[in-house]
Structure formats: structure tokens, C-alpha cells
Amino acid sequence: MNQVHDKSIKKRLAALPGVIPLVRIFKNVYWGLRHRLRLGTYNLDGVTHLHKGVTESVAYVVTVFEDYFKFGSIEKQAFEEKDILEIGPGDSLGVALMMVGLGVKQVVCIDRFFTYRDPDKEYAILAALVEAAPPLAKERMNRCLGNNYGIVGDAIRYLPDVPIEEAVAALGEVRFDYIISRAVLEHVYDIEETYACCRKLIRDGGRMIHKVDLHNHSSIELHPLQFLTYSEGLWRLMSSNISRVNRCRWPQHRAALEKNRFVIEKFEPTKMLSLSEVQSIRSRLRSPFLEMTDEDLSLNGFFVVCRAV
Fold first, then answer.
1. Considering the domain boundaries, does residue 114 fall inside one?
2. Pfam families of this UniProt entry (predicted)?
3. Exposed/middle/buried for 34, CB within 10 Å: 0-12, 13-18, 19+?
């Protein structure tokens, strides 16, 4: 009852003009100061497994893993002896471990922040994935698990505090055959620089598979596209130090991909708003969203598969 009451109060406060930007600016400044004073970064973003049981977490990891092949239309054998870059693994390296089971050469996992994780639960998730794997995959995966709850060996490299925009400098001459991510690219600071860095990191002919969630992550705003009514400058004041969504819509992703010599092989919407929802807020939208079509704005998530040329 108290949670419902608290949410109702937040909804009423959020309806007051200026309250949402003011609260978010304060939060953004607070986390910026923490970062500068080395008191920790905003590391609860990307936490998926904190409130899940081990069985539920394992099922989630398997779903994420399988989706790359389902939507990518790629046979699992194609990953054997390949180099993989996973952007934003969050609080589990389960997907990377399953990739090792396929016989990949190496999986490099980068994250903007070190995401909070429960080491006991993480080890239980990884151990359960190993236990469920076929014999050859199990043997490969087992070699990655240490006795101190950590990943050992060179098959998986985990590099926190490396945003994708800085990955070229951090990784040096390393190049990849596949770059994958799930619910990450909506959080990067600069979508054009992100795809430019991906192009530098991927080999010619390499493929990327990304699932991107474009929806408004706020639960208190009154309209699903309300976050597109803030100016670019105000949004930076609200989000520059934390992992708030970047608001880039599909036309911006498409243009950045094509600019950086990626050919889109497959595109599949995953979430849609109704056109009436878009039209009900259109007059309040800011540029560049105001210039986009209703159809483009109604797209609230997608899978994209593309090839570097």
C-alpha cells in the first residue's frame, strides 16, 4: 500500500511544470561530483539479476544468447574461432561464457561502468550454465571458471570503465568478427561516434547484432514520448553523468550506420507505439524529433543486423 501511495505522490509531483528536469539535474550533478571525487560511479544501471533467482537469471541469459542467432540468422558454428566484442554485458558474463562454449577465440566485454553484482549469485549463474551445456561446450566453459568466483584465462576479457566511444584507444590493434549488444546502444553518449568506433574495431565483412530499446525508461512521466519534449541542452544537464537514455531514434541510428559503411541486412521492430500516441504529443516535441515522421517516432525498439563493408 505504501509503495502505491508513494508512486501516486511521485506522479502528482511529476505533473508539476519543471519538477522532472529539476530533480534530474540535481541527480546528474550529484553523480558527477561522486565520480570526480572518486566516490564511485552510477553503477546500478545495467543491473538485471539483482532481484532474479538463479533459475530465472539463467533463463534470461540463455534467451539473450539464443536471440543473437535467431535474429541474426546465423548458425552457431559460424562463431567458432571468431573474436567477439560484447558491449555492455551488465552484471553477468553469462552470454560471454556461452560464446566460449561455441569455441570462439575470445570474447571481449566492455562496459561504461563497473556494474554492481552479487559475486555469489554470478558464480551460481555461470556454474548452472556450465552444468547445462553439452560435453564439449562444458569443457571449454569450465576452463574459464576460477575457484574464487572469477573468470580466469584469456577466453573472456572483462573491461569495465571503457565506454564504446573510447574502446579503440583502450583495445589497441584488436579487431573483431562480431559485435553484439542488448539494450545498450540507447545509453551511449554519442551514437555517431559509437558506430564510427565499431567500424574501426570490426574486420571488413564482420557483422553486428544489436537489440536497441528506444522506450522512455521513466515510470513517472505522463506520456511515453515526453522525454522528447526537452531541448538537447536541457537533456545534457539531466543526463551527462549518468546512464540515461540518449533519445536517438531509428533514423539517427540508420544514418550513423550508413555513414560508417555498415550495410543493414535485417531490421525488425520489437516495440511500437500507436500513431495516435505520437500525434497526441507531436506539437510539444523538440528538434530533431519534431521533423521525424509519425511512423519513425512510433518505433520503440528494434533488432538490427548489419555487415561492415
1. yes
2. Methyltransf_23
3. middle
String of b and e for 125-137 (b: at least 16 CB within 10 Å)?
A: bbbbbbeebeeeb
Can you tell me which residue has the cell 568478427? Answer: 177
Task: Tell me the three cell numbers of residue 167.
Answer: 574502446
Q: CA–CA separation, 289 vs 104, rounded Å?
A: 41
Which is nearest to 46 in space by CA: 109, 108, 149, 117?
117
Whether 234 is in a domain gets the answer yes
Question: Is there a contact between 303 and 71 (Cβ–Cβ < 8 Å)?
Answer: yes
Residue 255 CB neighbour total at 10 angstroms? 14
Domain that holds residue 267: 17-308
Domain count across the chain: 1
Tell me, what CATH number does 219's domain have? 3.40.50.150
Instruction: Report which DSSP code applies to 54.
Output: H
Residue pair 185/192 in contact (Cβ under 8 Å)? The answer is no
Rounded CA gap, 287 and 231, in Å? 8
- In sequence order, which residues have a C-beta less than 8 Å from that of residue 67 and are 6 or more positions away? 182, 211, 303
* Rounded Cα–Cα distance for residues 296 and 300 (Å): 9
Q: What confidence tens digit (pLDDT) does each residue in 111-157 have?
A: 988 888 888 899 999 999 999 999 999 999 999 988 766 789 999 99
Q: For residue range 162-198, what is the model confidence (pLDDT) as tens digits?
A: 999 999 999 999 999 999 999 999 999 999 999 999 9
Sheet holding 156-159, edge to edge: 156-159, 106-110, 83-87, 176-182, 202-213, 299-308, 262-272
DSSP string, 71-112: HHT--GGGGTT-EEEEE--TT--HHHHHHHHTT-SEEEEE-S
Tell me the mean pLDDT in the region 13-40: 78
Q: Does any domain span residue 4?
A: no
